Amino acid sequence: MPYGYRGRILHINLASGETWEERPTEVFYRKYVGGRSLGLYYLLKFLPPGIDPLSPENLLVLATSPTVGAPFPGNARHSVVAKSPLTLGFGESEAGGFWGPELKKAGYDAVVIHGAAKQPIYVVIDDGDVELLSAQHLWGKGTQETRELLQQHYDKAQVLCIGPAGEHLVRYASISAGPHDMHGRMGLGAVMGSKNLKAIVVRGTKAINLYDPETVKELAKWFAQHFKADPTNRLLNETGTAGAVELYNELGSLPAFNFRYGTIEGAEKLSGYTWRSKGLIIGAHSCFACPVACRKTVRFESPFEKDRWITSHSAEYESLAALGSNCGITEERELLALTALCDDLGLDTISTGDVIAFLMECVERKLLKGKMWEELQKAKLTFGNASAAHWLIKKIAYREGVGRLAAEGVKKLCEMIGSAAKSFAMHVKGEEIALQEPRGQKIGAALGYAVAPHGGDHIQMEHDYTFATESPFLQSMEPFGIIEPIPPMDLGPKKVRLFVMNQILWSLYNVFDICIFVGPPGHTYRPDHLLTIIRAVTGWKTSWVELFDIGRRSLTMARCFNLREGFSAKDDWLPDRFFEPLKGGASAGNSVPRKELKRAVKIYYSLMGWNPINGVPTEATLYYLDLDWLLDDPKIRDLVTRR
């Protein structure tokens, strides 16, 4: 009897309507586990190199893990994996809520979507029964209405769906997995749209077998009793991540005006604590089995539509910084309305905010020509103009007018506009950069943005300033050999080693689909708790050696996928703006040092077991991680064995 995992993976061919089940062995699950690694296995094994991400050939993998659905906090997530239409490389995004645990209750560990339907459809997975049904009546609707209509028809079901942006193949379209749960990054909503797949409805009643349910229960109880002692979990409980904005503004690490400044006047209006004091936050919600309740509901009068009141998910930090401070917008109702609009239309708030900020600076510098210039001039798209941002978001989602171009993302926009815009086109590998400012006491984010397989992704390392003193963050890394404080802006070998340990640890969380806010570094669960939980759920006699190999294996698979798709070491770099001095606030004058970053990237390659010059995993590394089957791919074999 398997413990934790179901032992069943569902395959669906949308073109033919055929469905079938795969039943992998326990050896397979211990190697690839779930989440990102499971998705990467299918991409590397079955996806031809160089395919168009918006073609029927692309796969869409929705994966949980053996621990998802077990009743302990932080265990509610799932991953969506495909080749990204935004970067043309590896694409993955996670979300919490209830969809992942519900898929497990319905009898499956993962779903692999093949092909494309001729007409809009949705999929229903109901306790192992699978149906493909017409979605003509849902096509064109926002994520909120789509979810409500389907849940009216399928009582107690969980719904994953796209909005108009996904239908119109916006390259940074998101997927909604619930009213508070978005797969924002990498344009995976466009992959669903290209397959004419509007939604996946799941409903299940099957219990999940646990090896040691009493231990799982005790650790969940312990977390509920102790989580408020962790400052981060306490903040999340009170306001969600929006409560961090004032701290970042004080540190000079709140991106403003397209990453030119690290602070903005009026930042307190973007804070979750301000929203709470004004009565804008009207509810708090938890993910499956979690007491933290970090997800907030807000209600406010629309600043753009007379006599309209909006009830929606509150803006998280990344959203409020992307659509708020980075666009020069600080009025809370404007920011909340922009976030709610993106969520309903199915747009990634980070990429959308970065695209708008980029175009605002292009307007400011008078770099635009023709119809694009005329449209944006007429709309008065300048920093601080929320009405113009609101207008542009709608244009992007429906690819209307200038939105047709803006829907392509910052990288392609920059290529259209010309070299004059390159220095402030804030993307890495084609993905718009998240809102963690590396010059603002977070220099590790510079290395993270540079080497992350996705591109400008911030879930690579905990903030540097948390390791600068004898803090709980540093203490929680002691079992991994990190015992000395390191200055926040140090980018030397010790920081790179800390980064590698943290990145592998968070990669492990990704593979198990565990929330980064529940465990090390620094949060409520300690390393021994996580090890105990995984053993108690699965019965595996695992160790931190095996678990770190799992995390490193996932990162190496992602590296190989990108190399196969044409990426190289030259793509592990940052936009020029980060090498310029930051303006404003406590971190003014800080910049990312070029020479130190180049050296850090090479050290990172070496510590990962990759060639220090070109970042290609060595043959020995592939053998050690049991990934030598990747050498069957001629392109990967050529890169690995080339001398």
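The above is record 1. Record 2 follows with the same two-line structure.
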Amino acid sequence: MKTFDKKEVAKEGLKVGLKAFILTFGIAFVIALIINISVIEHLQDYLQGTLSQNIGFRFGMVIRTTSILMNMAVFNTSGQIQLGLLAFIGLPLFSFYLADRMDNKKEGMDDVGFFIYGVASGVYTILLMTIALIGKGTFLGVNISFVSIRNLILTFVISFLIQVVIGMNYDANRIAGVVATRWMIRLSLGVSGLIGIVAIIAGATKVTTNPLLILMGILLLAPNLMVYVLFMMMGIGIDFNSGLDKLLAFGNMNLTYTGMPVGVRIFLMILFIGITLYAISRIEKEKFLGGLIVFATLFSLTCLGMAYCTRINLGLIKGLMEVDMGINLIKAFLYPFVGIFLLGGLWQAIQRVRNVIKS
């Protein structure tokens, strides 16, 4: 990006943050409108008692639904409940992409860009918390409030990371290691996503042959399964809380990493090693160490963000069992970080051997 002074950085960040918020709000509002017209009004026919009271099309309910959608898109929580469906992140991802598309296309991601991302994230966070404050209240008998210090911080971090991920996907990047990170994210998620979609189709066809239901399952579950498969490629499995783990064991279901066939685990690990070595090969020789550090840090932070965003905690269901599942956050950062450095050393050794053979 071109050089900005402080006022220009603030102005650019304000513009991007405001654009992204307006776009996100507009899309979420339309979805909320459809939900309230086609779904919530008809719930009155099925719900009885206190849950059926005050259900119907009202502007206040549309705003509340909009607030819920926008907060779920950045994985904010209302109380203990966290529904980490990665598909929701498409809202702010698409909005930030459009808001800063022209500048990213020309300049990519550089040092000044990080300051603009920070200002834009701050603007987006303040506006989202304002909508959360306006939209707090009762939704289908459940008290909803996304206003908290935790959600304030999380919104800022998630919106900042979204902009970093978008910025990495442009050719005009000047920071060593960013291109390698871009290749790593694209290839690893592409491969794991393909595996995840095949797994969903294979599993869904055993339950239903309805193509619409299968498509809905792919749209909602494929992003999460894509992330879980990616972590399995690194040797990290899904952690379940003790109650859910016992229930799965009772049903003779082993969804842990160690429960997978050894051949599948080896195959996934070979895929990860191959993709990582290819990404490392994209780092410039003259800036290899610095590029490797940037690559390892950016990709590990991306993995950490994906691990957090795909965590599902439904709390105590009907007083019987707590449902909590997801990827261990420490492993999500350390495994790829250490693995990239080890494979970086291996790549350097391979290059030296090749040079010796050539000479």
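Residues 6-168 form one domain.
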